[in-house]
Amino acid sequence: MLGGIFAVHFELQAPEMLFRSKPLQWKCDSFDILLFQRPQTMAFAIEEINRDQSLLPNITLGYRILDNCMNLQVSLRAAVSLIAGQGDTVNDNNCTGPPPVVAVIGEPLSSYSIAVARLLGLFSVPQVSYCASSPLLSNKREFPSFFRTVPSEAFQVIPKIIQYFGWTWVGAIGSDDDYGVYALKSFSEEHKKFGCIAFSEAINVNDKSNLKRAVKVVQQSSAKVIVVFLTKLDASTLINEIAHQNITGKQWIASDSWSAFAALASNENFKYFGGTIGVTARRGVIPGLEQYLLQAKPDYDQNNNLLKQFWEKIFGCKFNINDTATKYTMENSKECTGLEDLKSTKTEYSDVSQLRATYNVYKAVYAVAQALHNLNNCEHGKGPFEGNTCADITSVKPWQLLHYLKETNFTVHLGERVTFDENGDALPVFDIVNWQQTPDKMVISKTIGVFDQFTSSGQQLVINKDDIFWNFNSGTAPESVCSKSCQPGSRKAHRKGEPTCCFDCLPCADGEISSHLDSTECLICPPDFWSNQKRNKCILKEVEFLSYEDAMGITLTTTALLGGCSSVVILAIFIYFRKTPVVKANNSELSFLLLVSLMLCFLCSLCFIGEPTHLSCRLRHVAFGISFVLSISCILVKTIVVIMAFKATKPGKSVMKWFGATQQRGTVFFFTFIQALICIIWLTTAPPFPNKNTKYQNAKIIFECDIGSVAGFSCLLGYIGLLACISFLLAFIARGLPDTFNEAKFITFSMLIFCAVWITFIPAYISSPGKHTVAVEIFAILASSFGLLFAIFAPKCYVILFKPEKNTKKALMGKDIGKNK
Description:
CATH class of the largest domain: Alpha Beta
Distance between the termini: 154 Å
Oligomer: single chain
Helix content: 40-55%
Largest sheet: 8 strands, mixed
Structural class: alpha/beta
Number of helices: 22
């Protein structure tokens, strides 16, 4: 005999406890047609096994099936009844025969199975559940005789589905019992690995205030996805309350205990729960089951009243029974004849297209039958029990059958393997279903994917997105996040005191990037790179230097060439008119040398333009330093010559013979040699070199010439400044000499321009960024060179070209001044 505990009714009416007579039986109401398919399948499987000559030959299986009426007390009472026998008293003679049942198929509910398994475990009675999936039942210490044909990993699959769709902000509702509390805890632990729980509510649907409070939490929560761990009955109550409160815009995730009952969302409830995604047992096919279900006939045996109640439910009639204790009221009801045509009906009872829990019932019966078969085929002397003995099938003990159930491993005739692991659990394979509506407005659980933990492909979760119905106006998957993902270019900044899924997105700073969604930090770009405008990619920095292509470079180049050409033109004029008094009187040799040095000053500025190289960096400063010292030296010597020439006109003075042409050349060479020596020492110790400067502008690389030695550069500029100051002082002293012979005032004015330019150059050079630093230096070179060129030579050229009458010895000596007056 096999025992069975099934849920067929959903309500229970307890009898009055008057304690004056034997209590009446508890009365169950709300017969469920779909659930009645399960005990019928158990009967079908047993009859099929009895007809099979290869399985348990000469052994006939019987069954006793009880209804738990969705009540724990009734479920426990059913379990005790199955293992103790049908009688109210204990007969000592019954102790020697086989037990009332050798195994129990059921209990369907996880919370009830926990209590029943503890009871049956005391007597080592095997229990094979077809629906209870709580991981708590995998503990063999607490539940040593518990097995199941449904996987226990449902709580682990739901988080994977949620992660698959990217839902990080979800709510959870569970029943306020062992099943629901453990489910909420297990789910929360798994989900927190990648997301956050908006709320977690353990509810008692029979407590209206508690139910309304939980529904209000759902309504006020920003979470779009709600996971529900409830039984079918509790889920039905929740669905009705959600519909009553008119809460839409939520994506419901159903646990395996109610995901297969898509009819809960029929009619107006589809507006709220259509598109529900659930995890349920793998669908199977049982050949011949539909014909068996449709052959059912009501049984008038008082001990077998489930078929009778089924008949009344499906045909909406009542059997007329004379027994006053069980007499039905016939008012407003037609009488059942028992001859109604069941085959003409089309209900969930006869629908075998979605056999899930029902298929697990079928496998559970076959698992027990296979264990009994192996027990019966034990070879004497090779048995597993003490002394290598075998069990006797005619007086089998539950603990003996328990041993064989643990080793069960067979394939049903449909090709599916049935076995249990060390925890008594079945292979973890689930179907992912979606509640959808057919054209004729029926709501079905459509399979949209599968979860197979031991798949050979390596992809445990497979979902066909195209088959999913989303109950949203957009027709697409909802977005359920506390904070939207931070796009590349920003980072997550968690809000204090809130879950980790609630955060702000802060843009990365300049020079930092984030290239992935939800980056927790921004990465600093390498030295030669900088962040782009979107801050999601490091790009090469723009290399900036003063080139010949840009407008500033072209302008400065043109100006330098103009200055050089001007120097050449003036030199040509002086050479052409070299025999004229104006040229002779102003020391023509020094003038020629000064014009050449000024031309070099103009041209050296071109070394500052273009991409810096080791050669150009060294050449630019050397050429600048030497050419300017050469120019200043010429001016200084000219100034000295002017002063000495004036002193030589006094009687007894012969100064000029000590400072002739040779001495003048030697002085210019000596002053220039000192600058050349400074440059040699500078280039030898710490020469200028090209450098990519990133200090002043982070987004750009300033390609410049590093001066190498600050002391060397300072000596070079300082020496030029020293000579310029000396020239300015001497020229200032000589400014009072006779106008007709004196160019000291022109030299004074030119040196004043020169000093002013280079004094203002220093702060401008320091404060100018990037290529403008070089531009300022070039401008100072050009401005000072033009100042020297025009201040000294422009008046002489004017006289030579436009006032030839003044380019005479008499005019130069001032002897014709009186005549002109």
